[in-house]
Specification:
Elements: H1 3-15, H2 19-25, H3 29-43, E1 48-50, E2 55-57, H4 59-86, E3 91-97, H5 99-116, E4 120-126, H6 129-137, E5 143-146, E6 155-162, E7 165-170, E8 186-190, H7 195-206, E9 215-220, H8 223-231, E10 236-240, E11 252-258, E12 263-269, H9 276-288
Parallel strand pairs: 3-4, 3-5, 8-9, 8-10
Antiparallel strand pairs: 1-2, 5-12, 6-12, 7-10, 7-11
Helix pairs in contact: 1-3, 1-4, 5-9
Domain HTH lysR-type: 1-58
Pfam families: HTH_1 (PF00126), LysR_substrate (PF03466)
Organism: Ferviditalea candida
Length: 290
């Protein structure tokens, strides 16, 4: 059995086509097709059903796909254990991270890990917390680094750091002395699925402020866009203190520090939580992020 053929087959199923797979693996489309044909001939079954618009697994292909994923994961785990014995780590870690971890935590962790183990490569997917967790459940990534907690029987959780929410404004906006005043001024909010938005909604509810009554000036999908709009005087915003603690923005001011029990968490699939690379990265994250 050729492991390259297994990887190609798995990629074709997940991308439902040959074009992206050929580009990602550095192969021609005919090269991808030849590998799939060779695999089907070895198995003695048709694994893919091809039409002019899509490529889908047959019933045999569905079974083969699930088993191939397990075989590749076990092989990858074995290789990583052998690397650990030699202290020569290499390979790729795929991490889905929400805005705050992706922008303000991961860079520090990756820098240290790469200094120790320069052969390790990272694939970072900046998503909102909800999408990152969905990607992990589908096993499209190795780790999800997110801003809210979930209970899922297939996922292993590690608490990494606490957070504080702050209300920010700028020189062009009047100071606010109480949280209740937020109902009478324009506000910049994060998109649905954002961990920050979820934490803000919970905090406002506990404080007696109805989220639906806020005067929303803009809804954005990144912290940087939020900060830029506040700095321009468009409105006020609730952000994580991680996003402003080491950034020089003289026109932005913290008006209120708000109570929250929000944390940041690393999730791995339970079937892969003991993978040496995943375990090592998790330990570094817990050590470096306070």
């Amino acid at each position: 059995m050729n492991f390259k053929y297994l990887k190609t087959f798995v990629n074709v199923v997940e991308h439902q086509g040959f074009t992206e797979v050929s580009e990602a693996m550095g192969l021609t489309q005919s090269g991808v097709s030849r590998q799939i044909k060779a695999l089907e001939e070895e198995i003695g079954l048709q694994l893919l059903s091809r039409t002019t618009t899509s490529v889908m697994p047959t019933a045999a292909g569905e079974l083969f796909y699930r088993k191939a994923k397990q075989i590749l994961a076990e092989w990858d785990h074995l290789l990583a254990e052998c690397q650990a014995l030699k202290n020569e780590w290499y390979g790729q870690l795929k991490i889905g991270a929400s805005t705050i971890p992706a922008s303000y935590m991961l860079p520090k962790i990756i820098k240290i890990v790469r200094e120790k183990y320069p052969k390790i490569k990272f694939s970072i997917h900046a998503e909102d917390s909800e999408d990152a967790l969905t990607m992990l459940q589908k096993r499209n990534i190795d780790l999800a680094f997110v801003g809210y907690q979930i209970e899922h029987e297939e996922l292993h959780e590690e608490f990494v750091a606490t957070d504080k929410l702050v209300l920010i404004g700028c020189d062009d906006l009047k100071p606010l002395k109480s949280l209740q005043e937020i109902q009478n001024v324009p506000v910049i909010i994060r998109e649905k699925g954002s961990g920050t938005r979820k934490a803000v909604e919970e905090m406002l509810k506990k404080s007696g402020v109805d989220w639906e009554t806020l005067m929303v000036a803009a809804e954005v999908n990144s912290t940087e866009a939020t900060l830029a709009l506040v700095e321009a005087g468009v409105g006020y915003a609730f952000v994580s203190h991680w996003s402003i603690q080491d950034v020089y923005r003289p026109n932005i001011h913290v008006l209120l520090e708000l109570p929250t029990n929000r944390g940041f968490y690393l999730y791995a699939h339970k079937s892969k939580q003991t993978h040496p690379l995943i375990k090592m990265f998790t330990e570094e994250a817990l050590r470096l992020i306070k």
